[in-house]
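Below: protein 1.
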Amino acid sequence: MGCRTMEKCNKCKKQTFDYRTMQPKCSMNMEQFDKSGDEDCQHYKSRYIEYPLTIQGIQNNFTKDGMRSLYECGKLVKINPCGKEYGNKTYLGILLGDLPIGAFVSFHHDDQKLHITPHCNPAIFVPELKKIIYGYESWWGEIESPEDFKEITSEDINNVWYVKLLKAMFPEEDELSDGN
């Protein structure tokens, strides 16, 4: 088989890995494409963007319909920002909902359009700090009763399943941690 056709098979979205034989395999049950360099497999679709592209339009999902929030705007929350400048203090915050922090852009072959979709994260306004802090840069939780408004302690953080997992995987770094 020629090098060019083997390269094309390796770039195809339809190629998977057969763990029984430990060899690459076509998910369409095609043999590794072994025809002359001028012919192409009818099932070939590149797993990479190949240029030139013909773009028939842009689908902008930065709209009310494209930006659905998982959280109810206006809820009171307790928030413990991760930065050292906050001194491991818990603040009262107002949940603003999911707000965009970036955009995903992808090309869809079916309609030949660029699709722009917001990458969102919960945003919380902290009146005492006069700033918005995002969920990915803090520990936070909704306040549903007066008992909920207690400080988020290091014990609360250490009891989160993924923190436990990380501490089990990297015990030496746990000893260096200051609780944040």
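Below: protein 2.
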Amino acid sequence: MPLISYTKMKNFGSKRLIQILLVSFLTLMVFFSGSQLFSKEGKNFQPLPAKKLNSKLRTIAYATIRSTLSKTYDFKQAQDYRYLPCSEEFPELPGDFPCNFLTQPEPQKEEPVNVDSVEATDDGVLTETMEGGIISAAEGKIQSPNLNGKVLMLGEGEEALTLFYHKNSYISHYRIGNQLVVFLWQNQKGKETLTQILLFKLNAELFPEDGKEVLFSR
């Protein structure tokens, strides 16, 4: 069951939606500025051979990541957050991961929308079906061990996404069921840039059985 199935969607005015999507686009441009979006393999995940998998786990300090997964968390009351899906050019991630959660978002504040004030586009057509809305997420009462960043949970039960953030509010990894997604960032000219995404299948002891990667060209 994908994340969108338990997303509480609310309609926004067209002008507000255009503003939201523009912010999302500009945010992704910051992440990937100064580079092609993907390496020559494209946006599809490439399997990691066993030897490269072991090397990759050492590189990302997997013991630290595993310590965050093995801990039990209590969560505060859920709040509403804005939901912005990833673009078609972004790799497909488990659980309909919302791309505005690449950095830790702030809870949504209700603001009235005056639909009558919306300006028409050049072709005179406005659409109310643009994708976006509101999703409920709960923040952990404590920070994750070793990373010392915040923890968010989207959804409930086996289909919930548990998101773990660095202290600088950029996402480190998230888990859904037996799948783990790890984001690798690099500081380039004073800005954090997403350079790689890893996808692992976990066993019962929370160790990766296999893995895949997608690289972003620098």
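The CA atoms of residues 48 and 212 lie 5 Å apart.
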